Amino acid sequence: MSRQYLLLVLPGFIIFTIGLIVPLFMAVRYSFTDWDGMSAEKVFVGIQNYIDLLKDPEFRDAWWFTLRFTIWNTIIQNVVALLFAVALDSGIKAQKVYRTIFFVPCLISALVVGFIWLKMFSNVLPALNEFLGTSFNFLLFGQKETVLSGLLIANNWQWIGYWMLIYLAGLQSVPAELYEAAKIDGAGTVKRFFHVTIPMLAPAITICVVGITTGSLKVYDLLVSSTKGGPGRASTSMIYQTYTTAINGRQYGYGCAMSVSLVLVLLLVALIQVKSLKKREVQA
Question: The CATH number of the domain where 117 resides is what?
Fold first, then answer.
């Protein structure tokens, strides 16, 4: 029986190893060289690439944008997705229709989402401005001060429905007896939400927080089709910076050092979040 299980797992394990584990070890190896990605010569430079990262202002700027995008994205998506889930779980009419409408954007490629919102901000909404005679600034992707807001709108439009369904599944698994007991004890709507709903949603909160955070840290394709890291370098994420350094700049070894730093941060953040949120699940 164990041999049959092994045979079932083996194809996935092979794909996982070839597609993730091997490239990861190769990236670590190349991060200690000055390889340009093309030549046969790979000169070993030790930890010099990592030392240079600490002095690189573009590397720091990329991390600063990525962290701001991640923090805001995690807060907005979790709060709005939870509120939408609560609204849909309240027994409103046409619940299935609303669920479908909210979920459909996450089926669209992030590249397409970038194109959609680029057109919205540059053509559709300015035309609406002109039609209504208003003067709202919809050119969010074209200014350093507003590009982060534009990207947050696009990303949240795409993914809020996905996380909403996870919260909705969690809400529908909460025993009705707990709400009835809370009502008998005199708890109002707000108290029931914070003392019954939130604790019972602890597993769903863990999934959503970790998923949104790690996904935000890896933002790339949305930028490719919308801002291309601009204006200037105002929306250059860590992965976008890694790509431009390794491929366009032909500094493959240096780019690998950037990617290794990102992987380490991803692992650290995920570990801290899972460990801290799991404690709340146990307490709940």
Answer: 1.10.3720.10
Average of per-residue pLDDT values in the chain: 91
Q: Which of 276, 259, 253 is nearest to 47 (CA)?
A: 253
Q: Please indicate, yes or no, if residue 237 is contained in any of the structural domains.
A: yes
Q: Which amino acid belongs to residue 16?
A: F
Question: To which residue do tokens 């700027």 refer?
Answer: 61
| SS3 state of residue 237 | coil
Number of domains in the chain: 1
Range of the domain at 263: 56-283
Which has the closest alpha carbon to 257: 53, 19, 87? 53
Amino acid at 88: L
Contact yes or no for 152/69 (Cβ under 8 A): yes
Tokens, residue 22: 């091997």
Contact criterion met (CB below 8 Å) for 253 and 30: yes
CA distances from 145 to 130, 233, 234 (A): 23, 12, 8
Cα–Cα distance measured from residue 210 to residue 80, given in angstroms and rounded to the nearest whole number = 16
Give 228-282 pLDDT, tens digit per residue: 999 999 999 999 999 999 998 999 999 999 999 999 999 999 999 999 888 776 4
**Do residues 284 and 200 lie in contact, with contact meaning Cβ atoms separated by under 8 Å?**
yes
